[in-house]
Structure formats: C-alpha cells, structure tokens
Design goal:
It is built from 11 helices and 2 strands, in the order H-H-H-E-E-H-H-H-H-H-H-H-H. The chain is mainly α and 246 residues long.
Length: 246
Amino acid sequence: MQPKVDDSRKAKRALTLAQDIVRDIEAGAHVAGDRLAREDEMLARYDVARATLREALRFLELQGVIHLQLGRSGGPVVARPQAGDFANSLSLILQFMEADLRGLLELREAIAPDVAAYAAQRATTGDLSALADCLKELERNEASSQFEELNRRFHDMLGWASGNPLFGLLTSALHMLTREFSLSLGYSAQERAVQLRFLRRVLEAVRKGDAEGARQAMARLVAGSASYLAERSPELVSQKVKWGST
C-alpha cells in the first residue's frame, strides 16, 4: 500500500507546485507569449524533483495556462486559457455526472435571456457593430451549411457583449458542448427563418438599450429552439455529454 501513499503525495506536490507557478506568473505580470524560466532554473527555484516539475507543467498545459515549446530554445511559454479549455474540462465532469443535451439546453434557457438583457445595458459601439455584421452574414447564409456556426457566433458575441466575462465564457463553452449534437440534426428552413426573426428583435432591443425587450425576445428564441430539437429528435436530447467531443 505504501507506493499508493507516495503516489498521492507526489500528485499533491505537483498540484501545489502548479499553483505556485500560477501565482508567480501573476506576480510577474506575465502575458501570453512570455517565456518562463528554463527547467534547471525552475528546479532550483522551487526545490523539487524533475518529475514533479514536469508533472506540474503538464497539468498547466492541459488547463491552457502554458504551452511547452520543444527544442533547444524551448520551454514553458505563458498562454491564455480559452473557452475551449474550460469546455474540455467541463465535458469531463459532465460525463461522470451523466449530463445530457437536455440539461445543457435547460441551462441555456435559464441564462441566455439575462445575458441578452445585460448586453442591452452594456454593449459597446464595437459590440453592436460586430453583432450587426454577424447578423447580416447569417441572413446571407440562411440556406447554407454555415448557418448553425454563424448562429452560435452571434450568441457568443452577445455573451461577451454582456460586459461579464463569466457569461461570455459559459455561453461559448455551452455552444462548444452542444456543437456536435446540433450538427448531427441541423435546422429546417422554417426554423432558420424563425430564429432569424427573433435574432433581429434581440439585436434591435440591444441597440435601443431595452433590457426587458432583449430578455423577452431571447427567452422566446431559446425556448422555441429547445422545443424544436426535442420534438424533431427526442433521442438526440437524451444523448449524454462525452469528454473530448468539444
């Protein structure tokens, strides 16, 4: 049993070291692209075994905090975790919780209306311009295979336009988690027209700073979308989330 205790201690030490490295990245005001110290320097600084350091760096790489460059001039380079890193970690947890698409759709119904309302209060001129451009592209691609992806992009932009990065992150992650489900089904021409109609209402309300109007239009949009998916393919919304599908 002793090896298991040792392994547990090693894993805990690697996690503690990873946390120390993150604190030092923050304290040093490092930004994406900055190189960290070489391996020998980090070994001396943190006074750990080489295997512990490498395990800590691999953990940080999996979380999107750093990436490891190979070669003589390589080493750990600071990265900026993206929504995809969050979605990947979340999908692993959701798989063990046996979460399904229905659960993700219900979560979207719960937060999307308020996200739209916050966007109406906080969207910048740049946000409004980007949303308008995305909607025009959606209209041009109403009948194309790009519709679903452009639709997700609009909602992602709206999430970030809310002024709360947590909404932006969660909105983007939810779309990554549901992408494979929706691609396997797609929207009918009628459903695309309905979604476009409500997206126009959402954007118009956001432009006017009408939080309640944006909330109501988005609530109807996401509720209708969820109903459409459940009615057209009930077996699809019962499918479980799988890690690595993002």
